[in-house]
Amino acid sequence: MQLTIKWSLRVFGAALGFAVLAGQVNPVHAANTTWPQFRGADSMGLGEETSTLPTAWSTRDNVVWSADIPGRGWGSPIVWENKVFVTTAASEKPVQPAKKGLYFGGKPESGEDTHSFKLICIDFESGEVEWEAEPYKGPPGFTRHLKNSYASETPLTDGEMVYAYFGNLGIFAFDMDGEKVWERRFEPRETRYAWGTAASPIIHGDKLFIVNDNIEDSFIIALDKKTGEVVWKKDREEGSNWATPFIWENEQRTEIVTAGTDKVRSYDLDGNQLWEMTGMSSITIAVPFSAGGLLYISSGYIMDKVRPAYAIRPGASGDITLAEGETSNEYIAWSDNEAAPYNPTPILYKGIYYVLYDRGLFRAYDAKTG
To answer: N or C: which terminal CB in the chain sees fewer CB atoms within 10 Å?
Structure first.
């Protein structure tokens, strides 16, 4: 029996756990049990199931196995064949618990206490831990929101190596047996309101791409995936964001799309900017993705009146920002100023664009017309 990876994070004090639910899955890409990065290989967040999945589960019902992981880690698990990878950061001292709901205030985690940062490999079939790697132990050196963690970025793998990225701390590369191959440390930078980081890295060809948007020194960087050497690095005039970049392979070219609060920017694979656009909300989290020849971008901070979603055509250059009163132009197929979610990323399935809102609503759009 194939296993469906349906992750349910369960927080027990400072412990993080997840469960594997019974069912069958046949994802779009590669092996039946391959989910190599945040939102899957194509960043769509979809798998093509071949049989009925459970519609209800708990910590006991429909669970094949579960594993408790020490510490906090809000990154998604990834899967490659018979291996499940997850990251976590465990403090040597008790951490302040987060409360439910949207809220401001509260003292952020200072980043001064010693933490053990780990990449953990778990057997897909049994749930047994195969190995643990500790790429860093010490003070993180940067702050985080009470509802964030120091391991909120999702790791990724190409089947030869697995990469664990811990925001301002840096990125660490391991072989599939847990031996460290290289590391690339970053200088910690402050984020807006000391909230911390969350954008995950992506991989294309022989390069890793990382966007680190903060309030001090934002940048996008390309690394050689085998050695960690810097291929290129570009500064960004951008504040803090939490959106993972996206590789857009369209009919004309391959682009690196970065969703930002100040601007959406697209780069070629050598780091040259292709186009840009303003008109986002004041906090950007959702990941861009593409389907049916269009690129979809959203930014929906719930305290803003404008929470826009855009569908963009390939081939843009320069500034493609909509003029006042416009909802489309040469390169923007459609837009809607109330269509974007805040924390979740929309999904698109069989021509329908689905949005889950933080305020308790679920909406569906025609993906071609809006």
So the answer is: N
Burial string for 56-75 (b: 16+ CB within 10 Å, else e) reads: ebeeeebbebebebbbbbbb
**What are the structure tokens assigned to 274, written together?**
């292709």
pLDDT average per 10 residues of sequence, the chain (370 residues): 32 41 40 82 84 81 90 95 96 82 72 94 95 96 90 97 96 98 95 93 98 96 98 97 97 98 97 98 96 97 95 98 97 97 94 91 96
- Between strands 78-80 and 83-91, the pairing is antiparallel
Q: Is 341 exposed, middle or buried (0-12, 13-18, 19+ CB in 10 A)?
A: buried
Q: In the β-sheet with 264-267, what is the strand arrangement from edge to edge?
A: 246-249, 254-258, 264-267, 273-277, 318-319
* Residue 109 burial class via C-beta count within 10 angstroms: exposed 0-12, middle 13-18, buried 19 and up: buried
The whole model's pTM is what?
A: 0.90
